Amino acid sequence: MPQATSTALIMIDIQNDFCPGGSLAVEGGDQIVETVNALQDDYPVRILTQDWHPSNHSSFADNHDGAEPFSMTEMPYGPQVLWPRHCVQGTAGAAFKSGLNTDTSDLIIRKGFNPKIDSYSAFFENDHETPTGLEGYLRERKITKLVMVGLATDFCVRFSAVDAIKLGFQVTVIQEACRAIDMDGSLAVALEEMDSLGVILK
Ligand code: VGL
Ligand code: ZN
């Protein structure tokens, strides 16, 4: 039997566009890099996620006539924030933040590549049913516990943690290694939801 390597560190969207100077900058996003690098030594499996949108992505406000960034729209799968253009495939903004150690990661999971559906979660697109493949990867490797860090606490970290808990993984979010967008109280809502579902908030 293969040896079970039971815990994975999932490093979510630590990319230039989510750091100061980027197009969807999260305050202090760059400050987590050293903390995340140091944490990597503690986990046998390290996985990166990368927000990775085509130029015509439907989550970009500028692909909707007259829409303001940070306004809401209705998509076939539900309400959706319209974001400033960010993390366009192959651009500098989509690259991992410089200084982040990406060398010893086993897997990079890209998400948000379907022009019609946004994908906050590392597990499912925002329709909550199209899988990214991450669950199958983790199950095949017999990984049952996940530790999540990255950007942003109240969007991609939150949706990833909630999906993971619902799938039966044990999930910890290390808050000092995350930063939030915090739009209209979204950080408080995210922490409340994660806590109520059993995500361990450290
Ligand atoms: C994210 C908004 C849009 C995130 C990604 O990584 O939290 N937020 N795309
Ligand atoms: Zn995005």
How helical, in percent, are the residues?
10-25%
The fold-level CATH name is Rossmann fold
The strand order across the widest sheet is 5-2-1-6-7-8
Count of helices? Answer: 4
User: What is the count of β-strands?
Assistant: 8
What structural class do you assign from the helix and strand content? alpha/beta
What compounds are bound to the protein? pyrazine-2-carboxylic acid, zinc ion
Task: Name the beta content range.
Answer: 15-25%
Shape: globular
Distance between the termini: 33 Å
Detailed description of the structure:
It is a single chain. With 202 residues, this protein is α/β, with parallel strands linked by helices. It has one domain (7-52, 89-201): Isochorismatase-like (Rossmann fold), CATH 3.40.50.850. Helices cover 20% and strands 23% of the residues. It contains four helices and eight strands, in the order βαββββαβαβαβ. The chain has helices spanning 33-39, 134-140, 153-166, 186-197; strands spanning 7-12, 45-51, 71-75, 78-82, 107-111, 145-151, 170-179, 200-201. The chain has a six-stranded parallel beta sheet with strand order 5-2-1-6-7-8. Strand 3 and strand 4 (78-82) form a beta hairpin. Helix 3 (153-166) packs parallel to helix 4. Bound molecules: pyrazine-2-carboxylic acid (VGL) and zinc ion. It is an enzyme of class 3 (hydrolase). Belongs to the isochorismatase family. Its EC number is 3.5.1.19. Keywords: Hydrolase, Metal-binding, Pyridine nucleotide biosynthesis.
